[in-house]
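Appendix B. Extra example for self-study. Work through it before the problem class; the solution is given directly after the inputs so you can check yourself.
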Amino acid sequence: MRNLNVLFMLLLLSMFAACHPPEGCQILPILGNRDIQGTDTIYPVIPTFEFVDQDSQIVTNQTFANKVYVVDFFFISCPTICPKVKKQMLRVYKRFEQEPRLVLLSHTIDVRHDTIPRLKSYSDKLNVKTDRWHFVTGPEEDIYQIAGNYFSVAQKDPNSPGGFDHSGRLILIDEKRYVRSFCDGTDPESVDQFMKDIQCLLDEN
Amino acid sequence: MRIEGLLSFLLLTGFGLIHGCQSPFAQGQELYISACANCHMDDGSGLEGLIPPLNGSNLIISQPELLPCIVRMGMEGPILVNGVVYNQVMTPVSGLNDVELANVLNYIQYEWGDKNIFYSPTQIQRIVANCNEGTVHIKTEGME
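Solution. Structure tokens for the complete assembly:
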């Protein structure tokens, strides 16, 4: 009998643990090292940038004016995590397909091989619209440098499979160019939470 | 006494989990995750238009003898899988010996292909010795 009681309690407990209360939105924090100057707190913003996308269009901060956007870094011939991350980006794309205020931005870190036509064919195969998902290339140093602003690592590394090292993070940027959330793009559960964050950020505005 | 209850509960759920998750090709599953899943995904679903699925692939059932060659030699050129044309490059996967390759392919057939298809390490050895030179190109009717 005792055992049964314990079992029952455990079951109840695990049921409570398994279903969260209805999800409300909390204001997402602004991420990054802040700087306090007098009474002002300064948060890091994404610097200005200029890249070119799969349709040979210039993509700058202006492209994302009044929008929130999700960023990642990849390369086409990547033998490791990139396809998994792309699969999750595609999930985000599909989930918010009807929400024009959300745009995706993928940077290649292999600018020598991933030319504009190859980026075009890649995005065509994924069957996505350029104005909702930009695949960009540009000066290598600019891409490696801005990766740091997006809390990501992108660099050449002859010891890594495929010759480049990079993190598989997805990063969420708000319309004021602040970083508001990120997740591990290889982990579907982490991306579930991230998509909730995206919705919350959209609802903020 | 309570502890006893807890213990038996934990033991039970533990066994249940292990039992429910285990595939008869445990090593194959592990190797699949490390050698193939980055591209073909944990659930074998592939990536939209870019990487063909293994889950439900007609090819793995209709031409099982090609699989060892695809893994060892790599593959390129247009291929039709479940009505979708793919045309990318799969680089050869190195680092799997014949036993390991047999385990991976048996896992794939068991999960997504034909449970009656089974590769023994000697079969793998024989098939691989007879692969055509270079990457695998598949001629699919009505294409190219």
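Self-check: Residues 32 and 44 of chain A are 6 Å apart (CA to CA). If your reasoning did not lead you there, revisit section 3.
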